[in-house]
Amino acid sequence: KAAKSVGAVEKTFDAMKVVAAAAVAVFAGKQVVDFFKSGIDASIAQENAMRNLATALDQTGENSATAMKQFKDFADQMEATTKFGDDVVISQVAIAKSFGLSNGQAQDLVKTAADLAAATGDTLDGAVQKLGKTYAGTTGKLDDMVPALRGLSKAQLANGDAVKLLAERYGGAA
Question: Rounded to an integer, what distance in angstroms lies between the CA atom of residue 166 and that of residue 113?
């Protein structure tokens, strides 16, 4: 009788091993699928961001392979040194270009916006929008955070002096 009981327990453990191995295989398979899915999703997001940037550059007549590469390199550098992904950075550059900024001004705005967002807890998009408005001569709530902005004329704001001032104040925060 004892031998039968031991045999039954062994069969039960063998069955449990098979079930456990199957569960591990399913879990591992899901992890592999999720890994590839996240990579594909990231590639799609980056491709969409690059397409939007190309459209923004087309609208200003500045689309070229050189400009696209410079912005891609900028986004890669931002991704390596901040918490913001390259696709997010590229999307924000496209928004900055919609304000009528030069390529250099757009990069400066996005870099400063990343520092501002990190320092204040704002989103990158929110910081880009706030800084973009300064080029139109308005500071909004930014002058509550940095009273020195109140002293800038509309011409100075349009020239990018607010972005320069905020870059000095928050530079390196991201």
Answer: 9
What is the mean pLDDT of each successive set of 10 residues along the chain, which is 174 residues long? 62 77 72 60 67 74 88 95 94 94 95 96 95 94 91 94 95 91
d(CA 47, CA 161): 33
State whether residue 99 is helix, strand or coil: coil
**What span, in angstroms and rounded, lies between the C-alpha atoms of 66 and 95?**
19
* Residue listed under structure tokens 């009528």: 100
Between CA 142 and CA 130 the distance in angstroms is 7
**How distant, in Å, are the alpha carbons of 20, 23, 36, 76, 173 from that of 96?**
53, 49, 32, 17, 20
Chain centroid offset of residue 98 CA: 18
3-class SS letters over 107-119: HHHHHHHHHHHHH
